[in-house]
Design brief:
By secondary structure, the chain is mainly α. It is 97% helix and 0% strand. The chain is rod-shaped, with a radius of gyration of 51 Å.
């Protein structure tokens, strides 16, 4: 029972750890989603800026291309970095979740095996108890029968002893009477 309780405590502790990990994962995913929204807003803003600059492109194609190229490269680099970071974080979270799930499955399997062993031991102990109880009842019946025989034997012995004493007393009385006759 103590091992099962310990294992169940460990399973509960693991479940609490998994729940904490999932909560942290959820916070990180939400932060990543907020970062992604911010990146998209920046990209949308940049796209609008590029469209605004398109009317001026005719006036300064070289300058516009340089600014557009610089902004686009910077935005693309930042987006790629953000996306790479987000994908990496999601992959790490997925691996952590898989590891937690695997540990949980192992502990769950161990808890089930412990429960099955406990139930088997309980069944064996119940069977042993029933066997001992039947043996005790049989012993009790034999004891009761032996006690009844002993009571009958004692009563018979007392009856025979009483008859012997009466016979012996009668014989002693007869001897005394004979003795008085001889003596007297």
């Amino acid at each position: 029972m103590t091992q099962s309780s310990d294992r169940l405590d460990r399973v509960e502790a693991l479940l609490a750890t998994v729940a904490e990990s999932q909560a942290r994962t959820q916070i990180i995913v939400e932060q990543n989603a907020a970062g992604l929204r911010e990146t998209r807003a920046i990209a949308d803003s940049n796209a609008r800026a590029i469209e605004a600059w398109s009317s001026r492109i005719e006036d300064g194609i070289a300058e516009a291309e340089e600014v557009s190229s610089s902004m686009s490269a910077n935005t693309n680099r930042r987006m790629e970095d953000a996306i790479t970071d987000t994908v990496s974080m999601i992959a790490n979270l997925g691996r952590q979740q898989q590891e937690a799930d695997q540990r949980f499955e192992v502990f769950l399997a161990e808890a089930r095996a412990d429960r099955q062993r406990s139930e088997q031991l309980n069944a064996e102990h119940s069977q042993r108890f029933e066997t001992f109880l039947q043996d005790a009842r049989a012993d009790r019946q034999r004891f009761d029968e032996a006690l009844a025989r002993a009571d009958r034997d004692r009563a018979l012995n007392e009856s025979e002893h009483r008859a012997f004493r009466e016979t012996f007393q009668t014989m002693l009385a007869e001897i005394a009477r004979l003795w008085q006759r001889v003596a007297g």
